[in-house]
User: What shape does this take?
Amino acid sequence: MAPRSHKTARIPDLDASVGRDDAHIISLCTAQFVHNEWIESYDPTIEDSYRTQLQVDGRQVVLEILDTAGTEQFVAMRELYMKTGQGFLLVFSITSPSSLAELAGLREQIVRIKDDENVPIVIVGNKADLEDTRVIPRAKGFSISQKWGAPYYESSARARTNVDEVFVDLCRQMLRKDDAYLKSGFDEGGFGCDERDAQKRRRRMRLRDHNPQCVIL
Assistant: This one.
């Protein structure tokens, strides 16, 4: 199945990418968030997309989730997803040191591709229900959070702990960044921005305020 990168083109307002190879972690969290269900049998070869609505600070947000985790195309398409994405969930398992080790490289790649140290990011330590098999101390997650300036949550897809919170936090960051961008002086056609760009930004603001949308790839 071809990657559904076209979702980003159809949704021009806000988009976000899920940057992880540990596919089942993301897919299980996504299923809990969208459908409020736990998947016992996971097929990592299936690409799927989801659509749901949520309230973020009194604003109605349409969230489109394109779950490409586990597909053969994901690694090859990663840079494209990072280019089009505006926010990222970086998920690891608290029972797997290797999954945590991958996050630093992913963040470096995101910052390089976006050329922005302040990209909206949420760090998620999943499998919080498996405390007896934890190998990543909670303090380690918070240490990385402080270093990167990104919020850290410990979640459990099985117990549905902090599942909603990570998506809402990411959407909130994206909305705030979009607000700052659209309301900046560039929106008035100032230095570095011609009138055509200013008109595009004003049109983007009107559309976003009417029905803000986020995409997670």
Summary: The CA atoms of residues 3 and 77 lie 8 Å apart. The beta strands are 17-18, 48-56, 59-67, 88-93, 121-126, 152-154, 213-216.
